[in-house]
Amino acid sequence: MDNAVEVCKAIANEHRMNILKVLSTGPHNVNELSEKLGLPFSTTAVNVKKLQDMNLITTELIPGRGTQKINTKNFDRIIIDLFPEDQIEEGNMITFDMPIGEYIDCQAEPSCGIVGMDDYIGMQDDPRSFYETGRKHAQLLYFRVGHVEYRYPNRLPYGAKATELEFSAEICSEAPYHKLDWPSDITLWINDIEIGTWTSPGDFGGERGFNTPKWWGLHFTQYGLLKNWKISKDGSFLDGVKISDVTVNELNLDEKPFISLRLGVKKDAVNVGGLNLFGKEFGNYRQGIIMNLRYVD
């Protein structure tokens, strides 16, 4: 907890947050950071040193025209656990980052599409594009109504007991172009059991996502919100708020060779506002759909 406080102090500064945002686009030296942020060199150097002291960035000497100090960001996100240490159950953890194009089942109704690093995959607003072989390279997929389903390898050791299952993904609503006020009811299922529904407030654009490629127009969706679902012995939670009574024991994780996750928007939802799902090269977070499975032997 002491380290968490110091990290919070380090990033509770507009200059240092802006430095981290710039470094999200790639390595920079202090001169480059100073020019991009419109700050004096001395101010930039002091703030870079603070980030370096907290191990939030790495500074390396790189040969070039002379030797340069190049700064690189160490983390894409910071998670602070607020539970008291004596309430955290000891155990092991299995982590898997699923690319968003690796779904095994889907249903999509327009507006819909799949986007790769350099262009659309298939045709816009054509559900058949979701079956293109190039979908495995998807970095953004979207639909107004429907779902995508993924199967994670079940690496729970035989005889072990799952204590917590967690998923995180960057998502938002799907509006024409983008629209901040565009609610959508997005539902999560695990092993065909409905976990709960989150109402996304809108579809975010107008300001480029940290990882969104330059060719993708600013008037289109740019980034989403990073949502975290956690299923434990106490129920199911979204960003720490309980959303249902489904427990990890009800998922029968020791009975299947895979762990199924489905994200979608129901046709009869109150807010049928679609879904955007972001991969590593779109949006603000360099990840697909991350699964963490905690267990005890």
Brief summary of the model shown:
The chain is 14% helix and 38% strand. With 297 residues, the chain is mainly β.
CATH class identity of the largest domain: Mainly Beta
**CATH topology description of the largest domain:** Jelly Rolls
CATH superfamily of the largest domain: Galactose-binding domain-like
Shape: globular
Main β-sheet, in a few words?
A: 9 strands, antiparallel
Order of helices and strands: HHHHEEEEEEEEEEEEEEEEEE
Class from secondary-structure proportions: mainly beta
As a whole number of angstroms, the C-alpha radius of gyration is 21 Å
Provide the β-strand percentage band. 35-45%
Distance between the termini: 27 Å
Protein name: ArsR family transcriptional regulator
InterPro entries: ArsR-like_HTH (IPR011991), HTH_ArsR_DNA-bd_dom (IPR001845), WH-like_DNA-bd_sf (IPR036388), WH_DNA-bd_sf (IPR036390)
Keywords: DNA-binding
GO molecular function, one term: DNA binding
Folded structure, characterized:
The relative contact order is 0.17. The chain has two domains: 2-73, Arc Repressor Mutant, subunit A; 89-296, Jelly Rolls. The chain contains four helices and 18 strands. Strands 3, 5, 6, 8, 13, 14, 15, 17 and 18 form a nine-stranded antiparallel sheet that branches. Helix 3 (30-37) packs across helix 4. Strand 9 and strand 10 form a beta hairpin. The protein is mainly beta and 297 residues long. It has helices spanning 2-11, 14-23, 30-37, 41-53; strands spanning 57-64, 66-73, 92-98, 105-109, 113-115, 140-143, 145-153, 161-172, 184-190, 193-200, 204-205, 221-223, 225-232, 235-238, 241-244, 258-265, 275-278, 289-296.
